[in-house]
Amino acid sequence: MSNTIVAEAARAPQGIELDETVLIGLFLSETPTALMRLADGRVVKVGVGTAIGTAEIVAIDEGGVRLLEDRVARSLQMPA
Question: Which terminus of the chain is more solvent-facing, meaning fewer CB atoms within 10 Å of its CB: N or C?
């Protein structure tokens, strides 16, 4: 994802939810990682196995990030 696309998304009218954890970047290499903005405003780089609160990152791929929390799976995708 280019810096231009990220900058445009950051200024988009719909923006991102500031009170929720959102996916803001994917780094798809041999060991994929993701950049996430947490509900408290912190931005963290995560990998598979990283704990975010009570959730655990279980997969990262071109489709986004998959988390498992209390045996419930959910997915985070890049903002449109």
Answer: C
